[in-house]
Amino acid sequence: MQCRDKCGACCIAPSINKPFYGMPQGKPAGVACIHLDKHMRCVLFGDPRRPKVCEQFTPEPDFCGENREQALAIMLDMEGVQVK
């Protein structure tokens, strides 16, 4: 599966518990990474400063669902975050 255009769910929903470039406290679940651009793409893609957890993420239907809204709901649920 290819990343969905203008999605960014994987840069918003998951928490990152370790410090990384630009986010020394890590990233809480449900908060957009500061490296997510206005087109919902990671500006650190291919950059060695990109967190390992992000490098290792592979889009697949179980995480990404059929659209951006489903992807956010699925991933936030996995993080234990209530979707309103």
Précis, in short:
The chain has helices at 52-56, 61-64, 68-78. With 84 residues, it is mainly alpha-helical.
Strand content: under 5%
Report the order of strands and helices.
Answer: HHH
Low-confidence stretches: none
Helix content: 10-25%
Q: Largest sheet, if any?
A: none
Got a strand count?
Answer: 0
Q: What separation lies between the terminal Cα atoms?
A: 28 Å
Radius of gyration over all CA atoms, rounded: 12 Å
Specify the number of helices.
Answer: 3
Shape: globular
Structural class designation:
mainly alpha
Count of discrete structural domains: 1
Mean of the pLDDT scores?
95
InterPro entries: Puta_zinc/iron-chelating_dom, UPF0153_domain
Pfam family, one: CxxCxxCC
Describe this protein's structure:
- It is a single chain.
- This protein has 84 residues and is mostly helical.
- The protein has one domain (1-84).
- The chain has 3 helices and no strands.
- It has helices spanning 52-56, 61-64, 68-78.
- The radius of gyration is 12 Å and the shape is globular.
- The protein starts with 51 loop residues before the first helix and ends in a 6-residue tail after the last helix.
- The relative contact order is 0.26.
- The mean pLDDT is 95.
